[in-house]
TrEMBL record:
Gene source species: Avena sativa (Oat)
Stated name of the protein: Uncharacterized protein
Domain of life: Eukaryota
Amino acid sequence: MARSWSFLLPFALALIASVGDAAVVEHTFNVGNLSISRLCQPDRIITAVNGQLPGPTIQATEGDTVVVHLVNESPYSMTIHWHGIFQRGSQWADGPAMITQCPVRAGGNYTYRFNVTGQEGTLWWHAHISFLRATVYGALVILPRGGYPFPKPDKEEIVMLGEWWNANVVDLQQMAFLTGFPARQADAYTINGKPGDLYNCSATNQTHRFEVRQNETYLLRIINAALNTPLFFKVANHSFTVVAVDACYTTPYKTDVVVIAPGQTVDALMVADAAVGRYYMAASPYDSGVPAGPPFSMTVATAVLGYVGARNTTPALPRLPEFRDTDTAHRFLSNLTALVLPGKRTVPLAVDTRMFVTVGMGVADCLPEQALCNRSSTVFASSMNNASFVPPKNTSILQAHYNNMTSGVYTRDFPDRPPVVFDYTSDASDNATMQYTTKSTRVKTLRYNETVEMVLQNTRLIAKESHPMHLHGFNFFVLAQSFGNYDATTAAPQFNLVNPQERNTIAVPTGGWAVIRFVADNPGIWYMHCHFEAHLDLGLGMVFEVQDGPTPDTSVPSPPGDLPLCG
């Protein structure tokens, strides 16, 4: 017992660390064209940062200031989102296009500046415009100022999972918008930008390789940067102890499989305790759609885990879950709990605002700009509480909020309840009347420091599906999650109010619900949306407008001088 408590000592010391230890971590991101070949296809041009896929890793220590100079040398407009960073006092640096900033146009530049006080663990950064985050992404690691609340690993490794298209992703997104039909599925999955050995391609440099020493412990910082696909992750003949998710510590959770939705991160300890040899890491898709989701690539990405001294033999492949193994996915995602530490935030017990929000697919009329849309019919849409979100075109929402000039930009009437109460997960509810939604730019206004409880309810309209819902500007506590229609009478007594997992992205169970709770103590404009890029484009999002608090430190600051202009 004394040994386990000793791991918490550095944590206590970190609470009294000097502010003078903080540093400025500075990077320049040159976004431009990169010629690259994957899957034995001819070289093609992608958009990438500093000529890398994935892009450069940002490593900072808790309390540091991060400064990133974005130089846009690509032919496309660009923004960068720092996924999971709270942006307290730096709201203009959050990054989603037309939500907190206008895009940086081709040939332009913008400096993102933010602090990472009170955060530590694995986060990431990515483009937040069009489908460009398919190749514009990288890790953002925040080291603790003291030590870890678990035994220090011998080494740390970043494992970024992604998707790859043998096509121009901007063209795919544009055609999807113009026609009103989702873009096709990816051609491959990737580990650290490479698809691996199982894609019938003998070209060199297609597989990422990790070297390990027997009996050493490795901290794997696993990030799902895929556009549209939750993934199972395994390493043959090895197991994990999960110690954090979304840069929030968890009670140690032992498993041989990690389940990770787009936008999420998992920190897992892995002991290299197998026989000296070569083993595959593997990432395979989890298809949650019921009765059948959109088409997906039924393939497996691999990387090679090689022990020092191993012979060059064919690596062992792990036994992977079936693509539709919802039981395994739910068991992993629902069994995690928080590691409660001194000085860390705990779940609020009193609630000021309760929201019940449906999330799912539907149909809508063609927009005027959708030039190839069949106007005699409806097209795919997605919505929250039957409001299908459309970002403004000429002014960012944060700019309109700051200048108090909201007319024509957004309305403050996002509903706390769906317009119709129905059997949300029943096949009988799936009819043309219930599927229909309309486009709007509606926000929910919150008072500063208000506590919000939100039930996220998946619907059967079109299909049941697990939607990874990401909230900018905050972490939230996951009080409970399950399948079917939410029933407060039976669910509320089961709420975990002691050590619920803390996240910034929740995979709402397919045909089910999740209850989250957070304190709106960060003024500004904060996007909440599905992290399936295809669903975000179809309208599965909304915005929280958090009013200023009583002091300058609890108010949105003035915009930086180099904030990009729309036009």
